[in-house]
Amino acid sequence: MAAFESLSSRLQNVFSKLRGKGKVSEDDVNEAMREVRLALLEADVNFKVVKDFIAKVKEQAIGLDVSKSFTPGMVVIDIVNKELTQLMGGTQSKLAKANKPPTVIMMAGLQGAGKTTTTGKLAKLLQKSNSKPLLIACDIYRPAAIKQLQVLGEQIKAPVFSLGDQTSPVEIARQGLQQAKDNGHDYVIIDTAGRLHIDEALMEELKQIHQVVNPDEVLLVVDAMTGQDAVNVAKSFHEQLELTGVVLTKLDGDTRGGAALSVKAVTGCPIKFAAMGEKIDALEPFHPERMASRILGMGDMLSLIEKAQSNIDAEKAKEMERKMRTAEFTFDDFLEQMEQVRKLGPLDQIMDMLPGMNKMKGIKDMKVDEKQIGRVEAIVRSMTKEEKQHPELLNHSRRKRVAAGSGTTVVEVNRLIKQFDDMKKMMKQFSSMMGPKGPKGGKKGLKGMLGKNMKFPFG
User: Fold this and answer.
1) Cβ neighbourhood burial of 362 (10 Å; 0-12, 13-18, 19+)
2) CB within 8 A of 443, min separation 6: which ones?
3) I want to staple 378 with a disulfide (CB 3.0 to 4.6 A). Which of 224, 228, 324, 406 is the partner?
């Protein structure tokens, strides 16, 4: 979630000052709003959008008798959270569905925004709910655009309709739609041509395709890293083409993220999806309330739980929990668990979803090194079946063999085994402390224990 990193930390600083106050005066609110305004402008949020936003928050914060509230600082934060959510569209905006299939989705956008890749990602997302999308290659101008779509199609096992680059895009769209109807596809996603900038010819062609296929959705793919330009592009497209939604790509880039906060307010178009990385399944439905929560450092547990539910085997998780409790945890289980966690996506993105993570200095700076995880796996895979089940068998000569087999050093092998032992001890201690009514010794006991043993297994 680097897109909002600096905005997020600035806003959290403003609010931590408010949180600590027993009373919040009108001056405090004004001062806080001045800083929020600066933070938003710096994050490249459209000037008019910022002005309206601050006015709305102020009106509510000063109108409320904040001084009588139990936690005045929190009341202001709550107002900002609600307004931030409204600014990004209020609630999640779902894809339209045609009464009679197929549902036709037309993708539009400038060159380089990631339109073709997003087409593949969207198809993959639809497949997860058992849909059968057909992709139509209408970008006949960019060299290799058709090939790129075909490669993506193969990767996700979705058919791609193409008539090469000599037929007009309007005709390709017409025939592709017919094929989808004949073959019982419930979704059609049309990858149209982009240009380096908006021009008459591009718009004319898009309008003609629009006329022929009568789409249920016209999604504009916008590169979040282009900041204000992204919003201007969205505005121009919307005036000509009547967009139904926006897909923000490269939201994980190290940008100021203002586009995500301005697009809805300036164009009236909801953000329907956000792409958080290169991988084919790195496209997520956009939830304004969760994004606001992340920006304000309150975490996004809902998305994390959904990710876990769709990627983690519940039975395996139950069994793992039992093994941890009874300290039967072996190196095999350790590998299994790492596999499960890796399915959730890059670890630093997962960390971003946990409330308060960005406050914990050590963890915030911890870039999880995939290479290091690979080394850990190599070490465990170089052990024999018996050694994985009974790590106590690993004497010096065996450790030397494991190091040689995994291309690591004895020092690294020793460190991993020690961390594994610590982890098992901690689990045992943890499960003995977790009585039926929660932690014994309350938070203090838990904190003491975690403080002693909390090491990351690949440090």
Assistant:
1) exposed
2) none
3) 406
At residue 225, what is the residue type? M
Sign of CA dihedral 246, 247, 250, 251: positive
Tell whether 93 is covered by a domain: no
The predicted model scores a pTM of 0.66
**Cβ(420)–Cβ(331) below 8 Å:** yes
pLDDT at position 13, please?
82
Sign of CA dihedral 368, 371, 375, 378: positive
pLDDT tens, residue by residue, 308-364: 666 666 677 677 777 766 667 788 887 777 777 666 666 666 666 665 555 554 444
Residues 285 and 410 in one domain: no
Both structure tokens of 246: 């926006």
Token digits of residue 142? 């960019």
Sign of the four-CA dihedral 306, 312, 317, 320? negative
β partners of residue 105:
189, 217
Cis amide bond preceding 159, omega within 30: no
List the domain range (segments joined by +) for residue 170. 103-299
Contact 212, 245 (CB under 8 A): no
Q: Tell the residue number behind the tokens 């938070």, with chain if given.
A: 443
pLDDT by residue (tens digit) across 391-436? 889 999 999 999 999 898 999 999 888 888 877 777 666 555 544 4
285 and 165 fall within a common domain: yes
399 with 432: CB under 8 angstroms? Answer: no
State whether 214 and 248 are in the same domain.
yes
- C-alpha 220/C-alpha 192 separation (Å) is 11
Estimate to the nearest angstrom the gap between the alpha carbon of 361 and the chain centroid: 22
Question: Position of tokens 């940008």?
Answer: 255
Tell me which residue of 270, 278, 217, 229 sits closest to 251, measured CA to CA.
Answer: 278
Tokens standing for 159? 């058919």
Note the pLDDT tens digit of each residue in 85-113: 999 888 888 898 988 889 999 999 888 78
Q: Per residue in 429-455, pLDDT tens?
A: 655 554 444 444 444 444 444 444 444
Residue with tokens 């408010």: 18
End-to-end CA distance of the chain: 23
Of 299, 331, 349, which residue sits at a domain end?
299
**Residue 292 binned pLDDT confidence (cut-offs 50, 70, 90):** confident
Using alpha carbons, select from 451, 421, 445, 422 the residue that is nearest to residue 433: 445
pLDDT band at 459 (very low <50, low <70, confident <90, very high): very low
Mean pLDDT of the chain: 79
158 with 240, same domain: the answer is yes
Domain count, the chain: 3
CB count in 10 Å sphere of residue 440: 11
Q: How far is CA 111 from the centre of its chain?
A: 23
